[in-house]
Amino acid sequence: MMDVKSIRKDFPILSTKMNGKPLVYLDNAATSQKPASVIERISEYYRTYNANIHRGIYKIAEEATEEYIKSKNNVAKFINAAGMEEIIYTKNTTESINLVALSWGSANIKKGDHILITEMEHHSNLVPWQLLAKRNGAILDYVKLDKSRNHLDIGSLEEQLEKDPKIVAVTQVSNVLGTINDVKSISKKAHKHGAKVLVDGAQSAPHMPIDVKSIDCDFFAFSSHKMLGPTGIGVLYAKREILEGMSPIIGGGDMISTVDYYSCTWNELPWKFEAGTSNIADAIGFGAAIDYLNKIGMENIHSYEQGITKYALQELSNIKNVKIFGPSYDEIKRRSGVISFGIGNVHAHDIAQVFDSEGIAIRAGHHCAMPLVTNELGQSAVARMSFYIYNTKSEFETVLNAIRKVKKIFMVD
Length: 413
Ligand SMILES: Cc1ncc(COP(=O)(O)O)c(C=O)c1O
Fold this sequence. Notes:
Blueprint: H1 4-9, E1 17-18, E2 21-22, E3 24-25, H2 36-48, H3 59-78, E4 87-90, H4 93-108, E5 114-118, H5 127-136, E6 139-143, H6 154-161, E7 167-171, H7 183-192, E8 196-200, H8 212-215, E9 219-223, E10 234-238, H9 240-245, E11 256-259, E12 264-266, H10 280-296, H11 298-317, E13 322-325, E14 338-343, H12 348-357, E15 360-361, E16 363-365, H13 370-376, E17 382-386, H14 393-409
Parallel strand pairs: 3-15, 5-6, 5-7, 7-8, 8-9
Antiparallel strand pairs: 1-2, 4-10, 9-10, 11-12, 13-14, 14-17, 16-17
The structure holds pyridoxal-5'-phosphate.
């Protein structure tokens, strides 16, 4: 069980106000808030052992290197990777996916090859593949949504797999619909056709236990800032044998073993992919975020969030003219704590503005998933609230009040 009252005390921002009202932060799918332990670990590095990593042979440089490596080991364990050699630090999920498309993709995807993604991808797992397809003359295919517009159509997946794509790239959790995709089963099907599998874990790693060995994906990408850690640091996990065969896309310091005037050899994993001075402070902060999540337990986090999401969906389903995009509460097992919604014909930006006046932070727009929101949901924008470990049912009461206010201002029945 989670003690949310005491968890909330760990987050300094949660005792602040927005527009004179207690802050109700429901934009966790965009970025999460940070506990004091993360902020303090970053500050401690700068205050007491700030030094560059790897080459130093003095005490504080060794300490910084040790903490950086500890963070990587922490991440490896968190997702059950074989070891920290399989953990590449990047800026974020976006950079991780681009790294795969630029390095593995450029070397392995040729003219006429198929790349398979889905209609529910974030632009970060769509644009890099569009660019690669254009560069290499490959064909980009999509797994369709089913009739409910809430889930992937498995028939469409199977049909597309008959084309033997070189890679299947799919999100584990949709940042618009909240849908949880069965990436383990998708991975198994894709491997039967010889495809590599990339899982976009931006919306899953913060909220549920992740086991990359069990999923058996070849690549897994996620961001620290959505899981209590700092911005500016993300992860690309890949199976060791795949990373060994991949070339770096950025050259410079730290990623080499030897250099002469006209050639060089690569450093060992994972350093081959981390050119230049690393984001040391944020890596250390990320390690602290993982410590914090581990202390609560990812199973506990997942079940707490499903509880509050189910409650919210049930309440929302009782309100006239509120439309939910994504699976309903009776499919809670296939759903995360992201709820996209609309109120009558009120524009999503107007909804967000009224919420803001009530101290509630939500997001409105296409959520970087334009093909999904525009083509599949038929909306120019949707409002989205998204929960995390510190959100409570009583905060949701303020959401219900804000919805009443929106309805009153815009004269929705
Ligand atoms: C499903 C999904 N993939 C990728 C991203 C991109 O994450 P980042 O901006 O941290 O690179 C996001 C961010 O919202 C996301 O929701």
